Amino acid sequence: MEVILIEDVKNLGKKGDVVKVSDGYARNFILPKKLGIEATKQNLHDLKLQKQAEEKRQKELLEEARQLASQLEAVKVNLTLKAGEGGKTFGSISTKEIANALNEQAGFNLDRKKIQLSEPIKSAGTFTVGVKLHPKVTASIKVVVEAV
What are the Large ribosomal subunit protein bL9 C-terminal domain coordinates in residue numbering (predicted)? Predict the structure, then answer.
């Protein structure tokens, strides 16, 4: 029997795959647990339409991410860091502060988890920080840190 998987099934396939399984496995495990549906002509057609809609949505998301990346490339964020005598700084700049400054200074409301910072910034200067907007799109912003 052929079954269209609704959810990922370990050792069988991923969501949206059409797999051939034994009748008993389909009747007793896949169908009752709502892990898949029978691969009828109508269900296969519906699956095809869903895949087309998903592709279209992914293309739109990719295009939006590219546009946002081009806007972010021109952004420069200014932050301050307390410093003592001899230029020794207190504290550090993390992704949370960068995300808040982006929102306040440039109006971009980005999740801090999208900002890629290998380690917190602990010194004054100009830094280039990556922002992962999409699996295929990464932008970079300039962060200027001034010691006060």
Answer: 63-147
